[in-house]
Specification:
By secondary structure, the chain is of the alpha+beta class. Helices cover about 20% and strands about 30% of the residues. It has two domains: about 45 residues; about 180 residues, Galactose-binding domain-like (Jelly Rolls, Sandwich). The chain is built from two helices and 15 strands. A hairpin with a 2-residue loop joins strand 9 and strand 10. Helix 1 runs antiparallel to helix 2. It is globular, with a radius of gyration of 23 Å. The two termini are about 25 Å apart. InterPro entries: Ice-binding_C. One of its GO terms (molecular function) is transaminase activity. This is Adenosylmethionine-8-amino-7-oxononanoate aminotransferase.
Length: about 250
Amino acid sequence: MNPCESVRPRTGATAAGRCLLCAAVLAGLASYSTLSQAAFILEIDTDGLDDGAVNYNSGFSYGGDTTTASSSVSSAAYGASGGDSIFGGDGVFDPDTYLYSYTPGTTPDNLVIPAGTDLGGGYLASGLVGGGAGTYRVYATWPFTTNVSGGDTRYTISTSGAPDLVVELDQNNLGDEWIFLGDISYTDLLAPITVTQQSQSNTFVSMRAYGLLFEQITPRSTIPEPTTFALFGLGLLALAFRQRGRLRG
């Protein structure tokens, strides 16, 4: 039964109020799937096509004097959509540099990962929804490789603009799964988590990248999302219409 038709309203105003309430409920149900995601994946190439043409994610950019990189095959890591990876860069005076940015609460989770899923290296997914203060686990992935020649790749993970964690690793003989970088404490709500990836020397294949994965691993402290505010406002408007109808009736 349509709740908008279950009770005949006395006026057009109350009918509009009830229908607005229905719309708010339906919108809330529609947003549930977004709220029930369990991780955020930042893929450099967003088109899902391993075609040599990179459509850059808005959360990715180049840093230093790096302005571009070469494209390569996708990664087979869990949740990867199949887009291109990148390698190297055109840095001259600075190391080849890739920059990533993710803001929990503002950027909603976009990947369903059941709790206990093996992400690689023995690390299991928490299954917790992100978007609030807590501990976040950060992973990186790239296609399996044996030819990175720029030395160890450095990842600097920062919150509130200050480095929280610096990790250096040899990318060779790794890839096609999520590689654990580290855990960070996120407390400055609405501030971005940024990751800077740099090579040690600017060789042709100085480093490789497909994307990053952010997963909250402690219980979520909720940050109200824009959808929540919109539904709240819609509900208030519906109540106002309904009250107006009663006064006229």
